[in-house]
Write a structure and sequence with these properties.
The chain is an alpha/beta fold and about 350 residues long. It contains 13 helices and eleven strands. The strands form three sheets. It has a five-stranded mixed sheet, sandwiched between helices. A four-stranded mixed sheet has the order 8-5-9-11, with no helix packed on it. β6 (about 170), α5 (about 175-180) and β7 form a beta-alpha-beta unit. α4 (about 115-130) runs antiparallel to α10 (about 265-280) and α4 crosses α13 (about 330-345). About 40% of the residues are buried.
């Protein structure tokens, strides 16, 4: 009996040693809401990994809980208010969803300012420190960044400006709409999620988009022509994204957990984020090329120059618009281009 008791105690001790450690309950749960579905490339390659990294770096003390496709309610343009007001703790969104809300940041979205996701994202960090402090004062900004650049994705071929006439295309913000109008076509600014139904119903005949997000809205099935430009700037423009946290949600963290957030924000992740956005173009393009019906074209240099010349109307229009808000548009444009040049080298 004595031996049996000792044996039972030994087995129990080994079982305790081998048992998985009890899950550590997070001290802080941060609700992260965005408008894209979890299958979208930005979700899979940036947002979900970032949330996981915060959990690991905090040793489980912070849980970033994602809510995809506006699962907590509201519409995409409301995200910027939701995070400011504490409805959610973190959002990934576009200032361009709410026209004029952050006019200075629009300078990076003007036609033919952007070069690539890396240089524009790096430029945005420095630009934010000098020009965007007031515009972003109501938020704890985790990052401002750009995608690789938009192209024409249409149901009909586009090889010259005249091919656009009679079409209605989607742009994500007022700058995109102004650009489309400068080329003699109609433009609609509408959230990403509405693209499939609008294409299916013939309300629009295409959109300005990069490859990476296109599978999420079925552009490979709903359009057939993917058209870039000639020269160094093959993409028309980019979109600026803001990854933002509620100020009170950040303030309530103890210093060591604030450092976890800080170490995974701003300059610390800017270059890597830009590289990620350049990389996720490839899987997006692969999906677009998976359909034999699809065509991939490059507009010749002469037509590219015509498009660039026509798009100068957008600059003039933007200068006049932001001037009313006391913004020196030409000075901002000069700074933005200088910073992109700086980080392109």
């Amino acid at each position: 009996m004595h031996k049996y008791i000792l044996s039972a105690v030994s087995v129990a001790a080994v079982a305790v040693m081998l048992a998985p450690a009890p899950a550590i309950s997070a001290e802080f749960t941060l609700r992260m809401q965005t408008f894209i579905p979890p299958v979208a490339n930005p979700a899979k390659h940036f947002l979900a990994p970032w949330a996981k990294k915060i959990g690991k770096a905090s040793k489980g003390r912070i849980e970033v809980k994602p809510f995809w496709a506006m699962a907590l309610g509201g519409k995409a343009p409301q995200l910027i208010d939701q995070v400011r007001d504490g409805v959610v703790d973190i959002v990934w969104t576009l200032p361009g969803f709410t026209a004029g809300r952050m006019p200075r940041v629009e300078v990076f979205e003007l036609p033919f300012v952007h070069r690539d996701a890396v240089s524009t994202t790096m430029a945005l960090q420095e630009f934010r420190e000098t020009h965007l402090v007031e515009e972003m004062k109501d938020y704890h900004v985790l990052l401002a960044h750009a995608h690789a650049g938009a192209m024409f994705m249409t149901t009909r071929p586009v090889m010259k400006m005249e091919d656009l006439k009679g079409m209605t295309l989607r742009g994500h913000n007022r700058i995109g709409v102004w650009f489309l109008q400068s080329l003699g076509t109609a433009g609609i600014a509408t959230p990403l999620g509405r693209i499939p139904s609008m294409l299916s119903k013939g309300v629009i005949q295409g959109s300005l988009l990069p490859f990476e997000i296109s599978p999420a809205v079925k552009m490979h099935e709903l359009t057939s022509y993917f058209t870039q430009l000639s020269g160094d700037q093959k993409r028309i423009s980019t979109a600026v994204f803001t990854f933002m946290m509620n100020k009170k949600s950040y303030a309530k963290l103890p210093p060591d957990l604030k450092k976890v957030i800080d170490d995974n924000s701003g300059w610390h992740i800017a270059r890597k984020t830009g590289i990620t956005w350049e990389k996720i173009e490839k899987p997006g393009e692969k999906v677009m090329r998976s359909k034999s019906k699809n065509h991939f074209n490059t507009i010749n240099m002469a037509e590219t120059n015509r498009i660039k010349a026509a798009s100068k109307k957008v600059l003039s229009r933007w200068f006049e618009t932001v001037k009313k808000a006391g913004v020196d548009g030409p000075a901002l444009l000069s700074d933005a281009r200088g910073l992109i040049e700086k980080y392109s080298n």
